[in-house]
Amino acid sequence: MHRKKKIIILSHCILNQNSVVHPLARAKGAYTAIIEKILQEEIGIIQLPCPELLHLGENRPPMTKKEYDTPEFRRLCKTLLQNTMMQIQEYQRNGYEILGILGINESPTCSLLEERGVLMEEFESALSNAKIKLPLLGVPADYLEGEAHENFFTTLYAFLGN
Ligand code: SF4
């Protein structure tokens, strides 16, 4: 089968809301409307790890970026990103297009707004060391599965190349 050779990188919880801090889940399983759009466009997915889940567990409390910003947590993020970096570089070597990274706005770990989350800071640093620059987009902080979010979806469609 002919491959489209297009891939998007997603924050872990876009595909799995079970990983988020308890009061903050915004869908029952995944951000289905976002995933459906990506699948309809026949775009492949690389799922980033969820460092908060691995660091403090499923039952962790909500915390700020300042609280997460410890050498130990940064080390974990760096280590977890090695696998993702290897995948990106292998796909790029073989002519695949990495469309960009879809993060989670205002997350202490996965935000791609001006104030980046800890994982995204480490990710950008690893990408920059590898001389890779990728487009960035974030799921809005008020995203709730089942609601329209027209502006966000218009931006997402453009991000996916429509
Ligand atoms: S750390 Fe990132 S992937 Fe994990 S729940 Fe928070 S925003 Fe989602």
Overall tally of domains: 1
Ligands present: iron/sulfur cluster
Query: Average pLDDT, to the nearest integer?
Result: 97
User: Can you count the beta strands?
Assistant: 4
Distance between the termini: 23 Å
**Spatial arrangement of strands, main beta sheet:** 2-1-3-4
If you had to describe this structure to a student in words, what would you say it looks like?
By secondary structure, this protein is α/β, with parallel strands linked by helices. It has one domain (6-143). It has a four-stranded parallel β-sheet with strand order 2-1-3-4, with helices on both faces. It is globular. The protein has helices at 12-15, 32-40, 51-56, 65-68, 71-93, 118-129, 150-159, and strands at 6-10, 44-47, 97-104, 136-139. Bound molecules: iron/sulfur cluster. Residues 11-13, 19-20, 50-53, 104, 107, 109-110 line the site of iron/sulfur cluster.
How are the elements arranged and paired?
Layout: E1 6-10, H1 12-15, H2 32-40, E2 44-47, H3 51-56, H4 65-68, H5 71-93, E3 97-104, H6 118-129, E4 136-139, H7 150-159
Parallel strand pairs: 1-2, 1-3, 3-4
Helix pairs in contact: 5-6
Iron/sulfur cluster binds next to helix 1 and helix 3.
List keywords for this structure.
162 residues, alpha/beta, four-stranded parallel β-sheet, 7 helices, binds iron/sulfur cluster
Summarize the structure.
This protein is α/β, with parallel strands linked by helices and 162 residues long. The protein contains seven helices and four strands, in the order βααβαααβαβα. The protein has helices spanning 12-15, 32-40, 51-56, 65-68, 71-93, 118-129, 150-159; strands at residues 6-10, 44-47, 97-104, 136-139.
